[in-house]
Amino acid sequence: MNDPGLVLITDGDRLEADAFAHQVAERAVAFMECGLRPGQVVMAPDSPALDLTLTMLALGRIGAGLFPYRSGLDPTERLALAKLAGVEWLWNPDSTGLVPLSDATQTTHVSPESRAALLIKTSGSSGHPQIVMHGYAGLRASASRVNARLGVTAESTWLCCLRLSHIGGAAILYRAARAGARLRLHDGFDAPTVRRELEAHGVTHVSLVPPMLARLLDLGGRAPPSLRVVLVGGQALSRPLAERALAAGWPIRLTYGMTETGSQIATSGPLAVDDGELDTSLVGTLLPDVDVEAPGCDASPERLRIRGPMLMLGYANPERRPGQGLEEGGWFAPADLGCLTDTEQLRILGRTDDRRVIGGTNVSLTKVAQVVQEAPGVSEVQIVAGLDPVWGHRLTAVYAGTRDETELADWCQSHLSGPECPRAFLRLEWLPLLDSGKYDRARIAALVQSSGC
Predict the structure, then answer these.
(1) Which of 35, 58, 97, 421 pairs as cysteine with 28 (C-beta 3.0–4.6 A)?
(2) What topology is assigned to 359-451 in CATH?
């Protein structure tokens, strides 16, 4: 990446561009004096966020790669991830500094243009943990196109409250560095703290997943007047939540992407209610130079195929050779189902792995969740499918809101077909979240099992 011109602010401390660049240069020199070389990879904790940002940009000066991991990760799991990706170095900002993970660090055998610049652990479209590798050219391609689409400049202030060990957070660092923007860093998401910063510091851009947006809206009040873009992605945004945000003046823009695509490949314009209808399945037009193979929206949705300059190098292996997980011609096929409208907008209509056969009918869990979310008094919902010896599967709606289980069951009976209708309901005060801000589906499923629903 280019030398940083960004102004970084965290925990009340402010680093101007020149001072920040000086610290980055010092860290790069220190790393090289330890023996770090271009093409090698360093694992580093994602907290403190300031330290990870310095490390990321220092590695960029060297031409080395960063593998951020969740702070507090079990050392055994961390070592397993390091072996899977052939990582040579571990950075510990608190004590030992930069240390080799083996007696002899490897020399990568890939060409400079295929060197891994950023590695991110993800569950992947298969549901199995994978480590995604991105190169510097792909990160630059993504940052420049997203900045142009969202109007990110040196005058912008982006508040980053997404974890930096996830692509949504890491991508913000590259965008801010490329634009020379002001960056306000948070170590995780706390709704009252984020709300205060949005109001007090002239924030223009913020990225959120839907549960984060819901928590901010629950605090009440209008959107801060400085906000120009509230980028919402990571999972589907329900229409009721979008309508709540628009009514409070939040400038919502939908985005679609994933770790394998370096964050977003499509972004909507500012959402608005047209003719009384808001379609949150439309995630906008593709970024420049992105190709998507998908049918027109007058046909049945199909599994997408994606190609573009910001696509991953491939899934990691100990030699970090590129190509694993990509199809011939550089295409990537996620599990998402979609189509393209006549105006070249991308519509996302669930996933191939969210469908269950119930009583001989193919049921989309995404569609069921969207319908249940429309019920008055329901603020959040996730649908859990358990096995049933007669019907194949049995749906449970796990939700938060004021409507009781009996009332919601009656509402669902009149708005969903028989196979689509949940057979059990579990009301919680809050739905549990992952550290990424997304819903913790494994924990939600465990709550269903333990409740006997």
Answers:
(1) 58
(2) GMP Synthetase; Chain A, domain 3 (3.30.300)
